[in-house]
């Protein structure tokens, strides 16, 4: 018990001689909203977010039997998380284009469907993992309705 008191007294002495951290320092540590490993909101018009959305759409197009290609029409929410690379979590609306799959055009040159009977929009949630230093990407989660 005597040793514990002596150690506590020694620690208090050391802390008191070191001075107190500035208020800015404590405020920064206690009130920060950025936590390592936690998802962080990112702008939906960020070029990397737009690339991740396009990867999601390409996966959707490869998984469906629709004769027309779909393209992202609106990104409503984007989060990014640092994991083994970057994990993008996106809420994206995708819409049917006038481009047919068998012609494999560049999606940038595809206009959205204007024909009322062919027009279709879906809301999707996707997760895109990007490992830039390996030039690797994966879309493990894609849910559209």
List the helices and strands and how they pair.
Blueprint: H1 2-18, H2 23-31, E1 40-41, H3 47-63, E2 68-83, E3 85-100, E4 121-131, E5 136-144
Antiparallel strand pairs: 1-2, 2-3, 3-4, 4-5
Mind explaining what this structure looks like?
This protein is an alpha+beta fold and 145 residues long. The protein folds into 2 domains: 2-31, no CATH class; 40-144, Nuclear Transport Factor 2, Chain: A (Roll). It is 30% helix and 37% strand. The chain contains 3 helices and 5 strands. It has helices at 2-18, 23-31, 47-63, and strands spanning 40-41, 68-83, 85-100, 121-131, 136-144. A hairpin with a 1-residue loop joins β2 and β3 (85-100).
Which terms would index this structure?
alpha+beta, five-stranded antiparallel sheet
Q: Care to give the gist of this entry?
A:
With 145 residues, this protein is α+β, with helices and mostly antiparallel strands.
| CATH architecture label name of the largest domain | Roll
How many domains comprise the coordinates? 2
Tell me the structural class.
Answer: alpha+beta
Please write the CATH class name of the largest domain. Answer: Alpha Beta
Described by the principal axes of the CA atoms, the overall outline is elongated
For the sheet with most strands, the description reads:
5 strands, antiparallel
Number of helices: 3
**Radius of gyration over C-alpha positions, nearest whole angstrom:** 25 Å
Strand order of the largest sheet: 1-2-3-4-5
> What helical percentage do the residues reach?
25-40%
Reported by name, the CATH topology of the largest domain is Nuclear Transport Factor 2, Chain: A
Give start-end ranges of low-pLDDT stretches.
4-32
- What portion of residues belong to β-strands? 35-45%
In N-to-C order, the SSE pattern is HHEHEEEE
Q: Count all strands and give the number.
A: 5
């Amino acid at each position: 018990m005597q040793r514990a008191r002596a150690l506590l007294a020694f620690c208090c002495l050391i802390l008191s001689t070191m001075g107190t951290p500035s208020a800015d320092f404590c405020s920064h540590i206690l009130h920060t909203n950025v936590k390592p490993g936690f998802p962080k909101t990112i702008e939906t018009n960020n070029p990397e977010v737009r690339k991740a959305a396009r990867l999601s759409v390409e996966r959707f197009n490869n998984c469906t039997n629709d004769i027309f290609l779909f393209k992202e029409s609106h990104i409503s929410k984007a989060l990014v998380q640092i994991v083994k690379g970057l994990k993008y979590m996106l809420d994206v609306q995708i819409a049917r284009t006038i481009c047919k799959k068998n012609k494999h055009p560049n999606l940038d040159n595809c206009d959205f469907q204007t024909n009322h009977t062919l027009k279709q929009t879906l809301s999707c949630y996707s997760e895109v993992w990007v490992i830039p230093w390996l030039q690797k990407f994966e879309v493990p989660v894609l849910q559209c309705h």
